[in-house]
Amino acid sequence: MLQSSKFDYLIKQHKDKIFNYALYMLRNRMDAEDVAQEVMIRIWKNINKFNFYAARAWIMRTTHNLCIDNLRKKRKQFGREVSIDDNLSERIEDHNNEGSPEKIITGIMLDEKIKSTIEQLSEIHKSPFVLYEIQGFKYKEISKILDMPLNSVKVNILRARKQLQKELKFYAKEQFS
Which residues contact 135 (CB under 8 A, 6 or more apart)? Predict the structure, then answer.
C-alpha cells in the first residue's frame, strides 16, 4: 500500500513536467505521451530503489534519457531533425502585441524566429536551456537530470542564450532596419 501511495504522490507532482519536457524535446505529442508513460512505468518498477527525496532528479533524468533514445531512433529511421513545439508561440507571451495588426504580425514573426533559433541549438545547449528557461528547473536539478557538472550546465545555458541573442539581434537588424 505504501508503494502505491508513493507512486500516486510522485505522479501527481511530476506528470506535467515529464510530459512537457518530453514534448519540448520530441516535438510530437504521441511520442511525448509514450515517453511519459514509459517514465511512469519505470517509476513504478523502481519506486523502492531510488531515494524518494531525490525523485525529481531521477524522474527527469529518466525522461531526458528516454527522449534522447527516442530522438536517436527517429533520426536513424527517418533521418530528420525534430522541430520545436509548434505551440511555442502560444507560450511566449508579449502583451505589447495587443492592438495593431502590424504589431501582431511582428510578434508572430518573432515567435517563429525564436522557435527556429531554439531548434538550431545543439543538443548539449538545447536540453539545459529548455529545462532552465522553459521548464523552470534550477541549475543543480539540471545537473542531476543531465548527469552533467554544475558549471557545464551554467556554461551551456549561457552559450545557448548568447547564440539566441546573436541570432535574434541579426534578425532584428534585418527586419527593423
Answer: 17, 20, 21, 24
3-state SS string for 54-112: HHHHHHHHHHHHHHHHHHHHHHHHHCCCCCCCCCHHHHCCCHHHCCCHHHHHHHHHHHH
> Residues in the chain, how many?
177
Q: What is the DSSP-derived secondary structure letter of residue 133?
A: I
End-to-end CA distance of the chain: 65
Backbone angles phi, psi at 59, to 5 degrees: -65, -45
pLDDT tens for residues 112-127? 777 778 878 888 898 8
Scan for cell 528557461, then name that residue. Answer: 133
CATH 1.10.1740.10 residue window(s) in the chain:
1-81
**Model confidence over 74-105: pLDDT tens digits?**
776 654 444 455 445 444 444 444 566 777 77
What confidence tens digit (pLDDT) does each residue in 145-171 have? Answer: 888 999 999 999 999 999 988 888 877
Q: What is the CATH number of domain 92-177?
A: 1.10.10.10
DSSP at 116? H
Query: What CATH number has the domain spanning 1-81?
Result: 1.10.1740.10
